[in-house]
């Protein structure tokens, strides 16, 4: 077994970030008896769900000196999963009575933010948060004792700088801030405008333009339709589409899906693998994000390599530092909030010594075995943390460690059914559904918490 800090002891724990992960981490750590300080660089809780019209000065978000805008949320964004599946397990995302907000089953981003504020209020989280305080460096502080961490932070536009020692650090800084870009032959001499979806807010700047979006994520799906209302033409290019793909989207006379771009040229043209050539004004990279921990200094023990954060036992603990350093929210293609809740419970219980961890050696063996399995299956490193349907097995494993009930059957079935509906009816899945029996089951469960 790895040396737990001190069995059933409470610790002084720093949580970095007050988004959905940091909020539930703070609640679970305090429930377990730890003392908690949450560092949050913004003025309020909610993380990515704090919509802002502001965008970065560099539309591609590559300039390292740019001032970073945290949220990538666009104005028209509605959640892509049902509200029943989206909420934390024991604080359901129901329409709260007496408050007129967005009662839709797939509400707008503002409703998620309001829900997170309700959560923070209900559990008194804000009293643990230091707002407008950015963590600038996290490093091991061995001279202060085994497993201790030094946290350097700056408050209110760098006017106050603090240097403090904590027993443990839980990293919840969000992973949709540092963009990834597509590499396309000819881009350096292509005369058009390039941007990343991180800096997309509203369709108006695209009026009468010819726009290419690269990617097949929810963002590319939503933004292409948003823009098609005003743009001259919208073309979506995606590397996972077969080379001959060329599909006009039903319901639109200006929206097409293509295979990937082959090259771009000095005359402004874009050539696709399907043989089409189109003169384009703007290319928008909807190509996702990189894990980024600019404050973390572990002497190269924890690294990000081709978007693999490692080594991490069960996507949470780096064995060399377990249990005093942990990460919440690394897996993707998941239902994030319920998973954050279970990861938080696990971390809190492991830190207090109530839940045992395997030895560092055994954790490393498991991680290496997992990496080998991915390699044998031909899965690239950058997909290490993609879960999809295996999320439920993972969540249930966490639940078993924490002594909690497994993922509710309705949540699993609803999530899978929504995925199928989204794929088949991207236009309408947020407003038309037929899983009423699952909704009833969900609300029966929710009545336990109201
Ligand atoms: P975040 O919400 O990003 O919060 C991280 C927090 O850490 C922020 O408040 C940030 O200010 C703070 N922080 C970062 N660095 C520091 C530092 N150094 N010091 C102090 N504070 C720091 N999920 C869904 O469930 N449904 C959806 O429909 C959905 N749609 C999405 C659409 C878009 C465009 C994006 C980008 C994401 C979407 N997601 C969706 C995923 C979403 O990111 C998660 O739901 C969730 O917000 C992640 O929570 P988090 O706490 O890990 O990160």
Written overview of the protein:
Its EC number is 1.-.-.-. GO terms for molecular function: flavin adenine dinucleotide binding; N,N-dimethylaniline monooxygenase activity; NADP binding. The protein is of the alpha/beta class. It is globular. The protein has helices spanning 20-31, 83-86, 109-122, 218-228, 336-352, 360-376, 391-402, 409-424, 436-446, and strands spanning 12-16, 35-39, 129-130, 133-140, 149-155, 160-166, 168-171, 178-179, 193-196, 210-214, 233-237, 246-248, 255-258, 261-264, 269-272, 277-279, 282-285, 289-290, 303-305, 308-310, 325-327. It has 9 helices and 21 strands. Helix 1 (20-31) packs parallel to helix 5 (336-352), helix 5 (336-352) runs parallel beside helix 7 and helix 8 (409-424) packs antiparallel against helix 9 (436-446). Flavin-adenine dinucleotide (FAD) binds at residues 16-22, 39-42, 47-49, 70, 72-73, 77, 79-81, 86, 134-135, 172-174, 176, 219, 295, 329, 336.
């Amino acid at each position: 077994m790895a040396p737990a800090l001190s069995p059933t002891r409470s610790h002084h724990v720093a949580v970095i970030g007050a988004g959905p992960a940091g909020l539930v981490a703070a609640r679970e750590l305090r429930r377990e008896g730890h003392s908690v300080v949450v560092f949050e660089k913004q003025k309020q809780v909610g993380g990515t769900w704090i919509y802002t019209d502001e965008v970065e000065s560099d539309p591609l978000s590559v300039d390292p000196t740019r001032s970073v805008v945290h949220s990538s949320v666009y104005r028209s964004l509605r959640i892509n999963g049902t509200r029943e599946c989206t909420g934390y397990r024991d604080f359901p995302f129901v329409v709260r009575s007496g408050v007129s907000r967005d009662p839709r089953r797939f509400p707008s981003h503002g409703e998620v933010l309001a829900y997170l504020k309700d959560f923070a209020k209900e559990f008194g989280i804000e009293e643990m948060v230091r707002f407008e305080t950015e963590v600038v460096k996290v490093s091991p502080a061995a001279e202060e004792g085994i497993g201790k961490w030094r946290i350097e932070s700056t408050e209110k536009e760098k006017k106050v700088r603090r240097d403090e020692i904590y027993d443990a650090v839980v990293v919840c800084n969000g992973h949709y801030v540092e963009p990834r870009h597509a590499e396309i032959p000819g881009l350096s001499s292509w005369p058009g405008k390039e941007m990343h979806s991180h800096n997309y807010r509203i369709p108006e700047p695209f009026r009468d333009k010819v726009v290419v979006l690269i990617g097949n994520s929810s963002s590319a799906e939503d933004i292409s339709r948003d823009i098609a209302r005003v743009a001259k033409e919208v073309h979506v290019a995606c590397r996972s589409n077969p080379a001959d793909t060329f599909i006009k989207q039903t319901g639109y006379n200006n929206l097409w899906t293509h295979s990937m771009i082959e090259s771009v040229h000095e005359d402004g043209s874009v050539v696709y693998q399907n043989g089409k050539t189109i003169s384009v004004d703007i290319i928008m990279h909807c190509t996702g994000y990189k894990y980024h921990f600019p404050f973390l200094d572990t002497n190269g023990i924890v690294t990000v390599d081709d978007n693999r954060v490692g080594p991490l036992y069960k996507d949470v603990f780096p064995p060399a530092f377990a249990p005093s350093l942990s990460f919440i929210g690394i897996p993707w293609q998941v239902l994030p909030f319920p998973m954050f809740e279970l990861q938080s419970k696990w971390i809190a219980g492991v830190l207090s010594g109530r839940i045992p961890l395997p030895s560092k050696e055994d954790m490393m063996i498991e991680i290496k075995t997992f990496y080998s399995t991915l390699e044998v299956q031909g899965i690239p490193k950058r997909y290490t943390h993609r879960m999809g349907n295996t999320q439920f097995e993972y969540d249930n494993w966490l639940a078993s460690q924490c002594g909690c009930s497994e993922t509710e059957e309705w949540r699993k079935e609803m999530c899978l059914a929504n995925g199928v509906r989204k794929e088949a009816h991207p236009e309408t899945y947020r407003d038309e559904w037929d899983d009423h029996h699952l909704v009833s089951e969900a609300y029966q469960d929710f009545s336990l918490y109201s």
